[in-house]
Amino acid sequence: MLKAYYKTHLEAGTDEAGRGCLAGPVTAAAVILPKDYSNDMLNDSKILTEIKRNNLKPIIETDAATFGIAQVFPEEIDDINILNASFLAMHRALDQLTTTPEYIIVDGNRFNPYPNIPHTCIVKGDGKYLSIAAASVLAKTYRDAYMEKIHLEYPMYNWKKNKGYPTKEHREAIRQYGITKYHRKSFKQLPDQLKLDI
């Protein structure tokens, strides 16, 4: 059973999706849930089915006191590295909140402090706290929708299925067709024995 709050009911949970992908943005969400909020269906987005995540998305958006979504795209990821891009996406999502939180809880073990608001990093926080779980669902569903959209432009990579993650099929398509403007050039796109001149 997920807990409502870590410290205060005016608390933003934040999480990102797409950190380990070869293509597409890293997407983050920040969510403040109302006092005494409960939702038995809500859990870490990774253990929910795609149907459940998509069903939860409008519920979270309606129920949340406030939420924000932000994406950092490949060019910026290549410029500042994926870890910093993940933090930046979370900061930008927090910037969008219409209520300033008193506290921030972050999924993971590292975070760049957000100005003037204390935070705690919680490993596997998306499986422990409702607001982080809600942020994980929003980040994942928004990112998946974006990958499905750009799939139409480059269907040979099958992003609607792999969402940009380094599946065997995705790597095979890179080997065959090269990379696109949506690929992260700073990432190792192929194993060493399949190196590409990029």
TrEMBL record:
<keyword id="KW-0963">Cytoplasm</keyword>
<dbReference type="InterPro" id="IPR001352">
    <property type="entry name" value="RNase_HII/HIII"/>
</dbReference>
<dbReference type="GO" id="GO:0003723">
    <property type="term" value="F:RNA binding"/>
</dbReference>
<dbReference type="InterPro" id="IPR012337">
    <property type="entry name" value="RNaseH-like_sf"/>
</dbReference>
<dbReference type="GO" id="GO:0043137">
    <property type="term" value="P:DNA replication, removal of RNA primer"/>
</dbReference>
<comment type="similarity">
    <text>Belongs to the RNase HII family.</text>
</comment>
<keyword id="KW-0540">Nuclease</keyword>
<protein>
    <recommendedName>
        <fullName>Ribonuclease HII</fullName>
        <ecNumber>3.1.26.4</ecNumber>
    </recommendedName>
</protein>
<keyword id="KW-0255">Endonuclease</keyword>
<keyword id="KW-0464">Manganese</keyword>
<feature type="binding site">
    <location>
        <position position="16"/>
    </location>
    <ligand>
        <name>a divalent metal cation</name>
    </ligand>
</feature>
<dbReference type="GO" id="GO:0006298">
    <property type="term" value="P:mismatch repair"/>
</dbReference>
<feature type="domain" description="RNase H type-2">
    <location>
        <begin position="9"/>
        <end position="198"/>
    </location>
</feature>
<keyword id="KW-0378">Hydrolase</keyword>
<keyword id="KW-0479">Metal-binding</keyword>
<comment type="function">
    <text>Endonuclease that specifically degrades the RNA of RNA-DNA hybrids.</text>
</comment>
<dbReference type="GO" id="GO:0005737">
    <property type="term" value="C:cytoplasm"/>
</dbReference>
<dbReference type="GO" id="GO:0004523">
    <property type="term" value="F:RNA-DNA hybrid ribonuclease activity"/>
</dbReference>
<dbReference type="InterPro" id="IPR022898">
    <property type="entry name" value="RNase_HII"/>
</dbReference>
<feature type="binding site">
    <location>
        <position position="107"/>
    </location>
    <ligand>
        <name>a divalent metal cation</name>
    </ligand>
</feature>
<dbReference type="GO" id="GO:0030145">
    <property type="term" value="F:manganese ion binding"/>
</dbReference>
<dbReference type="Pfam" id="PF01351">
    <property type="entry name" value="RNase_HII"/>
</dbReference>
<dbReference type="InterPro" id="IPR036397">
    <property type="entry name" value="RNaseH_sf"/>
</dbReference>
<feature type="binding site">
    <location>
        <position position="15"/>
    </location>
    <ligand>
        <name>a divalent metal cation</name>
    </ligand>
</feature>
<dbReference type="GO" id="GO:0032299">
    <property type="term" value="C:ribonuclease H2 complex"/>
</dbReference>
<dbReference type="InterPro" id="IPR024567">
    <property type="entry name" value="RNase_HII/HIII_dom"/>
</dbReference>
